[in-house]
Amino acid sequence: MTTDRWATESRARAFQADLDAKPEALARLTAELPSDRVIPTLPLAPRRIVLLGMGSSGYAAGIAAGRLRAAGLDAVFELASAAVGTPAAPDTLVLAISATGGSIETLAAVDRHRGTSHVVAVTNTPGSALAQVCDAVISLHAGPEVSGVACRTFQHTLLTLRAIEAQLTGVRLDVAALCSRVAAATSDLLARRAAWLPEVAAALDSRDGLYALAPAERLSSALQSALMVREGPRRPGTGSETGEWSHVDVYLARTLDYRALLYAGSRWDAQAMEWLTLRGSTVVAVGGDLPGAAVTVRYVGDDDPDVAAATETLVAELVAAQWWVAAEAP
Predict the structure, then answer these.
(1) Do 92 and 43 touch, CB atoms closer than 8 A?
(2) 214-240: per-residue pLDDT in tens?
(3) Which residues of the chain have pLDDT under 50?
(4) Do the beta carbons of residue 100 and residue 55 sit within 8 Å?
């Protein structure tokens, strides 16, 4: 067995350990996250807010940008890799999100704003290259992810961005209480995994991959779930918004051994379920009881969209971990 930290044998077990450590990490975040001013220095009320990120950081940022717009603020998420982006301006706030703080794309995008816009790093690595070039730093307090897979940092990014949103909008939100509810929901899924995980993993097991659906307000859950099965066990995975699914992915449901992981809560759930049932697809429903689902996973607090957004991907993560460990077995 190689001692390389990126070797498959070590990473699969490390990923499981990273997931098991979620409740402990959430308790740390609850204790460390400021209740009022998450952004420590904000010279003026920003006219525009730009969120930058890649991968899991980008998934979380896209959802946060949508909520900020819904609150009436001028906010946009931009992939840090884009060649053209929002121009720098003194009244622009940039939230540069990178768990490692070393994403070269995010660092390059920040260069466009340094010295003009107010740039804040949201990172799990306060001493990183990103932190050193930003005007302020917000720590995710997720602890080291030994597997190298962004699982705890994804969850902490979602919650930290909620705290930032509350500061920017002035909306009263008890983020510490939300973190505690997410910790309870996470602990519930972990404690009962022996009862639901084998059935869910079997129902989603297909040579044609995993297809995750989630409401627009929680699209990050579908995208993150698909990423977990690609990054860990190296299986195909696709994430879709539930309503959009009927326009872009329904076409595969008849021709493939289609296994869908559907995060409930969209007003378009019934439409997606109708197509999936008609085409003989296998559906695992999470967070809600959907007629026609082969398996349903419920957990404490799953009727709260804020709790669901920061918790539900644990289902896909644990499935991915089980597949990954099995793949390395002789």
Answers:
(1) no
(2) 999 999 999 999 999 999 999 999 999
(3) 1-5
(4) no
- In three-state secondary structure terms, 26 is helix
Task: Kindly state whether residues 101 and 166 are assigned to the same domain.
Answer: yes
Measured torsion, CA atoms of residues 267, 273, 276, 278, in degrees rounded to the nearest 10: -130
The CA–CA distances, whole Å, from 49 to 13, 73, 91, 296 equal 39, 8, 9, 38
- pLDDT (0 to 100) of residue 1: 36
Q: How many domains does the chain have?
A: 2
Element (H, E) at 130: helix 129-133
Nearest CA-CA partner of 218 in 155, 295, 167, 279: 155
pTM of the model: 0.95
- For residue range 233-250, list pLDDT tens digits in order: 999 999 999 999 999 999
Amino acid making up residue 158: L
Predicted confidence at residue 237, as pLDDT, reads 98
The answer to whether position 185 is within a domain reads no
Residue type, 330: P
Give the domain-ending residue among 179, 206, 224.
179
What is the structure's pLDDT at 172?
84
Residue whose C-alpha is closest to residue 261's, from 200, 318, 212 = 212
Q: What does 32-96 look like in DSSP terms, one character per residue?
A: HS-SS-SSS--SS--SEEEEEE-HHHHHHHHHHHHHHHHTT--EEEEETT-SS-PPP-TTEEEEE
For residue 37, the model assigns a pLDDT of: 78
**Phi-psi bin for 49: left (phi > 0), alpha (psi -120 to 50), beta?**
beta
Contact 116, 90 (CB under 8 A): yes
Per-residue model confidence as pLDDT tens digits over 175-196? 999 999 999 999 999 999 999 9
Q: Which domain holds residue 268?
A: 192-328
CB 18 within 8 A of CB 10: no
